[in-house]
Amino acid sequence: MAEWLHVHLPALQLDSRYAQQQPAVLFNQADRTVLAATRAAEQLGIEPGMSLSAAFMLAEELALQAFHQTSQQQWLERIALLGYRLCGNVLVHEQGISLRIDDVRQLYRGNIKPMWQPFALWLQQYQLRFQSIRVQTPLQGLLLAPTQPLNKAPILSSEQAAKLLQQLPLTQCQLPPRTLDKLEHSGLQRLGELLALPTGSVQRRFGKWLQQWLQDLRHARPNEQAWFSPKKQFRERIELNREAQSAAAIKFPIRPLLDTLETWLASQKLCATGLAITLLNRQRERIQQLTIHASTSLIKAEEWLPLIDLQLERCQLNEPALYIEFSALGVSAQSRATEDLFEQASGMRPAQLLDLLSAKLGNEAVQHFTGEADPRPERACQVAQHGMAQLPTQHATAFWLVPIQSTHIEQWQLLHHSQRIHTGWWELESSKRDYYFAQHQDGRFGWLFRDAQGEWFLQGYVG
Known about the structure:
This protein is an alpha+beta fold and 463 residues long. It folds into three domains: 4-167, MutS, DNA mismatch repair protein, domain I, CATH 3.40.1170; 235-333, DNA polymerase, Y-family, little finger domain (Dna Ligase, domain 1, 2-Layer Sandwich); 399-462, no CATH class. The protein contains 16 helices and 19 strands. Strand 5 (90-92) and strand 6 (96-100) form a beta hairpin. Helix 11 (199-206) runs antiparallel to helix 12, helix 13 runs antiparallel to helix 14 and helix 14 packs parallel to helix 15. The relative contact order is 0.07. Mean pLDDT is 83; it is low at 338-346 and 388-398.
């Protein structure tokens, strides 16, 4: 038997923008009525369905948020993405999502707590109010979830939900007004009474639409349901509560985007090497663009956050920003890289240090050594600007190069022969060298070579 977990979010767009301690309402722009209110506004007597003029009489300093379907859909997709990562089968509705959990429940031997806990923690982290219930079909969840207490775990089983369904008043079943009038005139008041009628009688008396609605209530139709699937590219746009006068003011709104990016990457086994953050003004014109590069592929939000913080510290806005566009760069499949056994205890990796310095000072201020395909060490080791070339891999022989200088071989003790380099005649500066590892009389280990004329030169120090 299929089992679903339905999560209803009654004030998603309002909760995502205002704290519960601030009096604020979400309103319908068409009729100027209240759709949802924060807890602080509810304590002042403001309720859904109330007009804005009446709400202002109860609270003079009331924040307003107009309902926008696009913003609502964006947040629903972020939550659905988390559900997709946990169970894989998700349906998105106008005010919530439905997760098919029968397969996951079997995996955890009937216990959905391992799946529900990270989902609930994510909602609580952003103070999103929710109502949840375990049901047998998504339509049952749409009807019953709004009747459940706020921010509580779905402790009810689908069998207990079926009993609640029998007692549900028809006025709370979201039926069309014309159909509801017909049912009331027939003396029906609760859903259980309608479910008890024969199928043929329902179609004959109330029409084919109601019969199909009852079938959807009893049995889900997977072949006609639009399953949620993650988008191919990660690109988001959000609107701030108020215009940001400085780049530091966008740090808090970016955090949910980083969490969503982490979920999107992890759900598809992907990673990214860069982020593009574009700030727009009220007219949605670009005023600033930040590009964050990483030397290695990253996934977690905690890895991106320090790089973003350092870039924001040296960013100055020419005018206030109201919108943020956020996208991932260099997206590729995750690779199973071999890690050092003691990597966790070794501290920060060199690539991480270079990324932090680059974010703090700028790419032009950070340089690193990189390798070139040339057998001559003085040409093989080059300096490159950070972000313009790959970091060098570790050589079999580590050394510090110094300007080539003649040396007295009497001061050195040759240890063993290293290699011979003989460049071709087409080179303008043809070279023929024999390299040796040697130890100086003061204890230093050096890298020496002898040229074709038999003269000795110091190339670098080993260490």
